[in-house]
Write a structure and sequence with these properties.
This protein has 235 residues and is an all-alpha fold. It has ten helices and no strands. Helix 2 packs parallel to helix 4 and helix 4 crosses helix 5.
Length: 235
């Protein structure tokens, strides 16, 4: 029962996180990469943790009166500055936003010294703006329909795992506007490869989700279907 409640809580956190993407507009795609800096080495970043971190970023940007463009630039600069360090064996994931705050303050200071343009004056606030491509891809995955002959639980497991991958800051991620095609391919190719069943001991939703995330975490790249299946024996 406790595991079921925990899963429901995580699902709710994921939905709430996706709903916040329009708040930061064009900075949403950079938020996805930035959250990857907080991911533990050997496990996925939990939706509930990602939600708290996203709220912190929004509050920080509002506190400093940053525009979407400034926030996007600061998160991008932070991710790039940490790119090489993340490959080192002694890398420790972020636990606070101190580095981002320092970078964002610098971006704001530099922006103040330059002439303002209309396109650079959009503060981070609640809005009904269109989703970024990454946020739109995540939203699509949330509601991806099940192909014929494939049960809903399998589709939700695969597409939910794919949405999680988009928050991990992986390399070789497919273009956001192709994600619907990628999801269809994953569903149609994974389904016949194992005797999947929701209550199966070996071929259940958790085993599939864990395999997808484990493969992504093992090499920091978008996982291949063959590699995912390698985690799940046929019998």
């Amino acid at each position: 029962m406790s595991h079921a409640l925990e899963d429901l809580t995580e699902d709710a956190s994921g939905r709430e996180l996706f709903g916040k993407m329009p708040v930061i507009g064009q900075a949403a795609a950079h938020l996805v990469a930035y959250l990857g800096l907080f991911k533990p080495r050997r496990q996925a970043l939990r939706w509930s943790r990602a939600l708290v971190l996203a709220d912190d970023v929004i509050q920080l940007s509002q506190q400093l009166r940053a525009t979407e463009q400034q926030l996007a630039a600061a998160m991008s600069e932070t991710v790039e500055a940490m790119r090489d360090k993340r490959q080192q064996p002694n890398w420790q994931p972020f636990t606070k936003h101190n580095y981002l705050r320092k970078v964002l303050e610098g971006v704001i200071t530099n922006s103040a010294a330059q002439p303002a343009t209309d396109s650079a004056l959009t503060p981070v606030q609640s809005s009904n703006k269109p989703l970024s491509k990454t946020a739109a891809a995540i939203e699509m995955l949330k509601g991806c329909p099940s192909p014929e002959q494939i049960p809903e639980w399998f589709t939700r497991t695969v597409c939910g795992s794919m949405a999680e991958l988009l928050l991990m800051g992986l390399e070789s991620v497919p273009a956001a506007d192709t994600m619907e095609l990628v999801a269809g391919r994953w569903l149609n190719e994974l389904w016949p490869k194992r005797d999947w069943a929701e209550q199966s001991h070996m071929h259940n939703p958790k085993r599939l989700h864990d395999a997808i995330i484990a493969e992504a975490e093992s090499n920091g790249r978008w996982p291949s279907l063959r590699a995912i299946l390698g985690y799940i024996p046929k019998v």
